[in-house]
């Protein structure tokens, strides 16, 4: 049995920054965002299922999923969102599981923005521990808007769809606070990494 540490946090909290640091320590990273994109790639069985369920309009002329159209549709139709997720969530979970199986590092980081929110997706129950990157809302807004050049309104809308800080932190086994510079982040990650190595070793016996 291997140790899987779920990594989560709100938009712009620093999940990628933390993942990159763990990767540098030789830890395999499974990124739910990346998987969510690859499972609906052009020609994939998952995309075909979505097309059958929601209609041919979900696929554009080149055969790619029309993300903007799907987003708009499910935003206005909660029932369609449920149908969509009934298809995508199991596919994402299966892909994550097969990546876990293929992983060879002492433990694994499973990074997912909605690890706690999307409980029905079943990613959290692949994890033995949850690590939350906590950041103030002001920092979140500033960093997310710097990075993506997204409007404040759009970022605030995404934040409104995510758990608030207190609620997310309640689910955490470990919390790092990422309001200062990257050095301060790495300084908090180091002892956690050591702890995870120890826990992983214990799990083996
Ligand atoms: P998302 O969920 O939106 O993908 P994320 O949680 O993966 O976000 P990152 O992409 O790691 O967040 O960080 C958001 C932005 O803030 C990036 O441009 C990153 O370089 C920057 N950043 C992260 N941590 C720090 C820090 N401690 N100091 C300065 N900049 C930071």
From TrEMBL:
Functional pathway: Cofactor biosynthesis; coenzyme A biosynthesis; CoA from (R)-pantothenate: step 5/5
Enzyme Commission number(s) from the entry: 2.7.1.24
Catalytic activity: 3'-dephospho-CoA + ATP = ADP + CoA + H(+)
Enzyme class: transferase
Keyword annotations from UniProtKB, A to Z: ATP-binding, Coenzyme A biosynthesis, Cytoplasm, Kinase, Nucleotide-binding, Transferase
Coarse class of the protein's main subcellular location: cytoplasm
Entry coiled-coil feature ranges: none
Keyword Nucleotide-binding in annotation: yes
Molecular function terms, GO-annotated: dephospho-CoA kinase activity
Xref: InterPro entries: Depp_CoAkinase (IPR001977), P-loop_NTPase (IPR027417)
Gene3D superfamilies: P-loop containing nucleotide triphosphate hydrolases
Compartment annotation: Cytoplasm
Residues binding ATP: 12-17
Family: Belongs to the CoaE family.
Role noted for this protein: Catalyzes the phosphorylation of the 3'-hydroxyl group of dephosphocoenzyme A to form coenzyme A.
Protein name: Dephospho-CoA kinase
Species of origin: Psychrobacter coccoides
Gene name for this UniProt entry: coaE
């Amino acid at each position: 049995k291997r140790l899987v540490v779920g990594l989560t946090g709100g938009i712009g909290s620093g999940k990628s920054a933390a993942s990159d640091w763990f990767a540098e320590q030789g830890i395999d990273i499974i990124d739910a965002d990346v998987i969510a994109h690859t499972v609906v790639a052009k020609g994939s069985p998952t995309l075909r299922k979505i097309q059958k369920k929601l209609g041919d309009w979900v696929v554009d002329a080149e055969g790619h999923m029309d993300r903007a159209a799907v987003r708009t549709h499910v935003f206005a139709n909660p029932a369609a969102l449920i149908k969509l997720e009934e298809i995508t969530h199991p596919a994402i979970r299966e892909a994550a599981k097969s990546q876990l199986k293929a992983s060879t590092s002492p433990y694994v980081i499973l990074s997912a923005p909605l690890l706690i929110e999307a409980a029905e997706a079943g990613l959290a129950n692949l994890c033995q521990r949850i690590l939350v990157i906590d950041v103030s809302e002001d920092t979140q807004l500033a960093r997310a808007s710097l990075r993506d050049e997204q409007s404040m309104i759009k970022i605030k809308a995404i934040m409104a769809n995510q758990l608030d800080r207190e609620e997310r932190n309640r689910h955490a086994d470990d919390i790092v606070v990422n309001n200062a510079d990257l050095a301060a982040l790495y300084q908090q990650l180091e002892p956690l990494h050591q702890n995870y190595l120890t826990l992983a070793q214990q799990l083996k016996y």
